Amino acid sequence: MPGKRKRQAYDNAFKIRVIEFVENLDNNSAAEREFGISEKLVRDWRTNKDTIVSGPNKQKRRVVMCNV
């Protein structure tokens, strides 16, 4: 399927950089274009800003696979 992206994990340093960029412009779409990420992802990171800033810089979201 064309246009489908591979799932990507971002570290907290990158997320903080995106959040600061967005807060200066107050425009999620501009961050989407600048960093090549979805606007929904930017909104989620802004919502969870306190958790992201207080966490370690290298923390990435972990996906756990369960065999059923």
From TrEMBL:
InterPro entries: Brinker_DNA-bd (IPR018586), Homeodomain-like_sf (IPR009057). It comes from the Eukaryota. It holds the Pfam family BrkDBD. Residues 7-50 form the Brinker DNA-binding domain. Coiled coil: none annotated. Signal peptide: none annotated. This is Brinker DNA-binding domain-containing protein. It comes from Dreissena polymorpha. The lineage of its organism: Eukaryota, Metazoa, Spiralia, Lophotrochozoa, Mollusca.
